[in-house]
Design a protein that fits this description.
It is a single chain. This protein is of the alpha/beta class and 267 residues long. Helices cover 40% and strands 14% of the residues. It has eleven helices and eight strands. The chain has an eight-stranded parallel barrel, surrounded by seven helices. α5 links the parallel β3 and β4. The longest helix is centred in the middle third of the chain and has 16 residues. The N and C termini lie far apart (36 Å). The structure holds 3-methyl-2-oxobutanoic acid and sodium ion. 3-methyl-2-oxobutanoic acid binds next to β6.
Length: 267
């Protein structure tokens, strides 16, 4: 199978075909995801929680992200690799360039940054330098100390209108992808229809172009109470082989057929 690129995802969006994404942190799971047909891998700074045992993503460093990305890139054959720039590693334009250099040279294809219109200049500068960005809006875990917890975002009409406008500004600035976390499904649908670039959702309903879950969550490896949008595909009846490859394949199939997410996983 040919490698998945941004143009592959743009074509899928144009055809109305959904694509799958899972977080990944090492070579063995990257290989297994590849076997299961997962189209995009996110090296998430959630590794601060699920790998390192912290209670937020804030302690994660660029060196951590580059290390995990390099391990994944060695095993990956076809998936597009997205990599989070961690907390305070893109606060200035030169920080953004230096952090992107580290993770792109480790094997990332796209960098993901959290925030709204205030990132427009960062997105523009990175695009000019050859670094495609995925902008992450809605619940942005790096702002946990501003939000005072992990809550659904974009619930009021004003907040929804602002998010929609933020996305327009960022796509205008050159953002290659959008990721929406924990926003009402109606808002996610509106955003997805209003931009030409692929939109990935988590806790954002069935109408985004792609879906992402944290790998540990969808395998039922919980260290805390799972969020409403999580589904365990390890024990699901659609996992025909009952193993991890089967769980990844069942998830991939459920995303493609829009059997996941259902209302039960949606705000
Ligand atoms: O770090 C991560 O795992 C993420 C996803 C939850 C979108 O950013
Ligand atoms: Na993240």
């Amino acid at each position: 199978k040919p490698p998945v690129t941004l143009s592959t995802l743009n074509k899928l969006k144009a055809k109305g075909e959904k694509f799958s994404c899972l977080t990944c942190y090492d070579a063995s799971f990257a290989h297994t995801m590849d076997q299961a047909g997962i189209e995009t891998i996110l090296v998430g700074d959630s590794l601060g929680m699920v790998v390192q045992g912290h209670d937020s993503t804030l302690p994660v460093t660029v060196a951590d992200m580059a290390y995990h990305t390099a391990n994944i890139a060695r095993a990956n054959r076809t998936a597009l690799i997205l990599c989070d720039l961690p907390f305070l590693s893109y606060a200035t334009l030169s920080d953004a360039i230096n952090s992107s250099r580290a993770v792109m040279q480790a094997g990332a294809n796209v960098v993901k940054i959290e925030g709204g219109r205030e990132l427009a200049e960062t997105v523009r500068v990175l695009a000019q330098a050859g670094v495609p960005t995925c902008v992450h809006l809605g619940l942005t875990p790096q702002l946990v100390n501003i939000f005072g917890g992990y809550k659904v975002q974009g619930k009021t009409d004003e907040a929804a209108a602002k998010l929609l406008e933020d996305v327009q500004i960022l796509v205008q600035a050159g953002a290659a992808m959008v990721l929406l976390e924990c926003v009402p499904a109606t808002l996610a649908k509106q955003v997805t229809q209003s931009v030409s670039v692929p939109v990935i959702g988590i806790g954002a309903g069935v109408d985004t172009d792609g879906q992402v879950l944290v790998m540990h969550d969808m395998l039922g490896v919980y260290t805390r109470k799972p969020a409403k949008f999580v589904k365990n595909f390890m024990t699901d009846s659609t996992n025909v082989t009952g193993d991890i490859t089967g769980a990844f394949a069942a998830y991939h199939q459920a995303v493609k057929s829009q059997a996941f997410p259902t209302d039960e996983h949606t705000f």
